[in-house]
Each structure stands twice: as structure tokens, then as C-alpha cells.
Task: inverse folding
């Protein structure tokens, strides 16, 4: 399909840019673990009304809603200066291709000491490409997983997102091209399936993937005892 064709073109371009064999990522991403998602964000006022209405429902429904909110890295506060639809995080996949029809996505340069969020552009004829954990680990930190968040604006916003991962058994580890005597491997080897499962479990249990205090991706730099389960 067209989304897979686009992903292969991007995988080839990334390998060329990094000086790796041209099909390095393309072959590892065949039958990948990625997903596609269509998202719609309501304005904060509408979200607040929805939250208020939910609180008036019966106890069983309210309890169910609370569980879902706890597991989701989001918060809605109509009085907050920054109303966050999705909290700061990095993606555990190789990269993410995203298109939005209105402002809301914000990016953070991993090395920016001021931690100033940058509004991602809105363009009808362009996609945004976000670097994920896999590329940080494979490049031994030469590329950094890009922290990002979604801030709710005064308008509704829709986005379509394709997360490009690797096939489940693919081993993610620093490529020899990025390992030197002065820079030995900085990341432990892990399979795509274990990295995905571990990251999702950590987030569910309250450990975020991005640490603003150290400006590092906790998921990208996670240390694994064994590569697979």
C-alpha cells in the first residue's frame, strides 16, 4: 500500500544519509511492528465539558473512564496555560510520519538547554518526520529521539500518524559504523518486540519516556539485561 511505499522510500533515504547499506532499514522494516492512527482533538472547552459530563455518570462508568485516563499520557485542564493533549514523550519506533490539519504538535530539540517547545508546521503538501528510539540506539546517539507533545488549541485538530517500527525479531543495537574506540556502544541490544513491550509497560506503570530534568529519552536509553524475552 502507499503508506508502506512511503516508509520504504524514507528508510532508503535514512540509510543513504547515515552512510549505511542502502537497504539496511528497509529490509529490517519489512512486515514491521508499526501502526497507523487517526486522531482528533477537541478544543479544551469541549474536552472539559466532556469530562464534566462523564463525572455525572454512574459509578461503574466513571471508574472505567478513570482507568483509561490513568493509562493515557494526557491531561485536560481548561484553566491551564498549556493544555496538554499528549504529554512529552519519544516514540519507541524507528520514526514517525505525521500530518496535521491545524497547529498543536510541538517539538523539542533534545540538546536545547532552554527546553523551548517549537510549533510543528502545518502544510497541506508535506509530512513531519519524527526520529524515534530505534534510530537513536542504532546510531549510538548520533541521532536523538525527538521529544514531542500535543497542546490543545482553541480549535479542533485532526492528525494521521504512521509509526514505522522494525519487524518483531529485528535486533536494535549500535551499528559498527557508529562505534569507535572513543565512543564505544552506549546502548544495550534489544529486539523490537521487547523494546516495544517494555516501553509500553513502563509508561502504563507511570514511568514516562522523556525526562525533562536530564533531557534524555528514558525509553531510548533503557538498559536491557537480555536482548529478548
Result:
Amino acid at each position: 500500500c502507499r503508506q508502506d511505499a512511503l516508509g520504504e522510500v524514507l528508510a532508503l533515504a535514512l540509510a543513504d544519509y547515515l552512510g549505511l547499506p542502502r537497504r539496511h532499514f528497509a529490509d529490517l522494516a519489512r512486515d514491521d511492528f508499526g501502526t497507523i492512527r487517526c486522531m482528533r482533538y477537541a478544543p479544551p472547552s469541549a474536552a472539559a465539558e466532556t469530562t464534566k459530563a462523564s463525572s455525572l455518570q454512574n459509578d461503574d462508568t466513571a471508574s472505567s473512564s478513570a482507568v483509561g485516563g490513568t493509562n493515557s499520557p494526557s491531561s485536560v485542564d481548561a484553566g491551564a496555560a498549556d493544555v496538554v493533549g499528549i504529554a512529552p514523550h519519544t516514540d519507541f519506533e524507528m520514526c514517525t510520519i505525521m500530518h496535521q490539519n491545524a497547529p498543536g504538535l510541538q517539538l523539542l530539540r533534545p540538546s536545547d538547554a532552554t527546553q523551548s517547545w517549537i510549533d510543528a508546521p502545518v502544510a497541506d503538501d508535506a509530512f513531519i518526520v519524527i526520529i524515534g528510539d530505534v534510530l537513536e540506539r542504532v546510531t549510538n546517539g548520533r541521532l536523538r529521539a525527538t521529544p514531542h507533545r500535543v497542546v490543545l488549541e482553541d480549535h479542533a485538530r485532526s492528525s494521521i500518524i504512521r509509526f514505522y517500527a522494525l519487524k518483531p525479531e529485528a535486533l536494535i543495537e549500535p551499528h559498527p559504523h557508529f562505534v569507535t574506540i572513543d565512543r564505544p556502544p552506549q546502548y544495550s541490544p534489544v529486539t523490537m518486540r521487547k523494546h516495544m513491550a517494555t516501553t509500553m509497560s513502563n509508561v502504563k506503570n507511570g514511568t514516562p519516556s522523556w525526562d525533562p530534568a536530564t533531557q534524555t529519552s528514558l525509553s531510548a536509553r533503557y538498559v536491557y539485561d537480555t536482548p529478548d524475552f
